[in-house]
Write a structure and sequence with these properties.
The chain has 320 residues and is α+β, with helices and mostly antiparallel strands. The protein has helices spanning 2-45, 62-69, 74-85, 97-102, and strands at 58-59, 108-115, 124-131, 134-143, 146-153, 168-169, 181-188, 193-203, 206-220, 232-243, 252-265, 270-275, 280-285, 292-309, 314-317. A hairpin with an 8-residue loop joins β2 (108-115) and β3. The longest helix is centred in the first third of the chain and has 44 residues, at 2-45.
């Protein structure tokens, strides 16, 4: 009887010991797996390092730039704005550096396109977006170290309609497959208005202006004292076209101007637009130039003709 009891106690002790050892091994496994798991995940999601000798002026990919501009984290946006805009030697049309440094709002209407802007076979990356009511375009070019900024455009647009859908264009003005950058900017006050199109080409690692066109100019009529004089304006509008080079014939830029006296009436219409930042519709009155008008006097029609000069790398007046 005593032998049976002793054997039973021995078996229970051995079973308890095995159970305890099993629990201990399971605990150690979970502990070690928990410590090693995040390290593996961190290695998988970390940004690939830049090649030796390359600095923060280079980016791994344009897609990464686009994602950082739309990131929810303020610190991420501040860092990407600093790296994109505060670069020595980058000359934008207009940009408020201090605002971007101190107030990194999230980019809206962000878009990435690939387009060829020079004679090299590789496409450049064009990132466009709107922030703080200002449209922005960043051009990146690929090199051995990754992608680097070669141009930033953010023109002054006064009295234009958000979100500025047509402020930038990419005409194939000189030859097929090679694009220029056309940027619109405008200014004005309560009585006058001017919108200008400026055309740029990529020359190596920077942009050069090759043409400028006053697309629309509105001003008071000098000496006019008739009825409703405040609503009577001189309005000159330009229509233009590019003709690509063919054989020995150089590329051309033809501009036709039409100038009239017009009389405005009624109120300015409203502009309804959606904002990604707050996820809501907004409404604002458009510029007074969008009011209804009638032509009361047709003044003149004139033309200008320009040809592409390979020597000067810009459009010059034909015959000059």
């Amino acid at each position: 009887m005593l032998k049976v009891v002793w054997r039973l106690r021995w078996r229970l002790a051995v079973g308890a010991l095995c159970f305890f050892v099993g629990l201990l091994l399971a605990y150690l496994y979970v502990l070690l797996a928990g410590r090693s798991g995040p390290r593996v995940e961190k290695r998988e999601t970390a940004v690939a390092p830049q090649p030796v000798g390359c600095g923060e002026a280079f980016f791994a990919s344009p897609d990464g730039v686009l994602a950082a501009l739309k990131d929810e984290e303020v610190g991420v946006r501040r860092e990407i704005f600093r790296r994109l805009f505060l670069r020595p030697g980058v000359q934008p049309v207009y940009y408020d550096y201090e605002r971007d440094k101190d107030f990194p709002e999230r980019a809206e209407e962000a878009r990435l396109r690939f387009v060829n802007l020079d004679d090299s076979p590789e496409d450049e990356a064009l990132v466009t977006f709107v922030r703080a009511d200002s449209p922005v375009a960043v051009v990146l070019k690929q090199c051995a170290c990754g992608w680097r900024v070669v141009g930033v455009f953010s023109p002054w647009l006064r009295f234009e309609d958000y979100p500025y859908a047509d402020w930038i264009e990419l005409p194939e003005a000189i030859r097929p497959g090679r694009h220029l950058i056309l940027v619109r900017e405008s200014n004005g006050d309560a009585t006058s208005y001017t919108r200008r199109a400026r055309v740029f080409r990529l020359a190596g690692d920077h942009f050069e202006q090759v043409a400028a066109i006053d697309e629309e100019t509105i001003a008071p009529v000098e000496g006019y004292t008739g009825a409703g004089w405040a609503d009577v304006k001189t309005r000159r509008v330009a229509s233009y076209s590019f003709t690509q080079s063919e054989g020995r014939r150089p590329a051309r830029l033809n501009v036709e101007y039409k100038q009239d006296w017009v009389k405005y009436s009624g109120g300015a219409p409203a502009n309804a637009y959606w904002r990604e930042g707050d996820g809501a519709w907004h409404e604002a009155h458009r510029h007074w130039r969008t009011r209804l008008y009638e032509v009361i006097k047709a003044e003149l029609v004139s033309e200008e003709h320009f040809v592409w000069s390979e020597q000067k790398s810009l459009f010059v007046a034909a015959g000059s």
